[in-house]
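Before a colleague's protein record goes any further, I have to sign it off. I want your independent view on whether this chain really folds as the C-alpha cells say. The record follows directly below this note.
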Amino acid sequence: MMPALPIWKRPAVFHGFLTGAVLFMVKFTLYTLEHWEIRFAPTYQFGSFALLMLGVVWAGTTERKMWGAEFKYAKALLSGLLVLTVATFLSVCSELVLYNLVDTSLNAQTKSILLESTAKGFEAFGNALDDATKDEIMGAIEKSNPGSPSELLAGWPMQILLNGLFLFVFALWTRSKEDASQSDWLSGNNAS
C-alpha cells in the first residue's frame, strides 16, 4: 500500500513536469533555430504525442510499483491524466512566454504559417469545400491571435482531451495486472 502523498509529490506529477520541460525546451529550440514552422508539422505533433505517452507509461509503471495490487484501472487513468495535465500546461506556458515575452512578432509568423498550410490543405482536398467555406476559414485564421493568453489557455483542455483519448488504452497497460478477473477478455482467460 502506498502511503498518502500530497498530489504534488506523486510520480505522475513529476513525470508530467519532466515531459512538459522537454516540450518547453523543444519549442524554445525550434524558435532559436528559426524553424518555428516545424511546430505545426505533423511530425512534431506525432513526436509530442509520443513523448506525452512515454511520460504516461513511465509514470504509470512507477506508480504501479509503489501501489502494487491497489493500482487498479481508475488509479492508472488518474495517473495518466495528471501527466497530461501538467505536461500540456507547461507546453502552453512555453508558448505564452515565446509569444508574449520573447518575440511578439511570432504571432504574425504563426498566422502566416497557418494560412499557408491551410491553403495547401485546400488544394489537397480539391473541391471538398465550397469557396465561401474556405474564405470563412481563412478569415477566421486572419482574425485569430494565436499568441493571446486567452486562446492558448482555451486550447489547453482540448489538448488534454485529444491526448487523453489514448489514456483508456494506456491505463489498461500500466494498471496492476493483479486486478484482472478470471473473465478478463484482455488476458485471454474465460471463466466459462
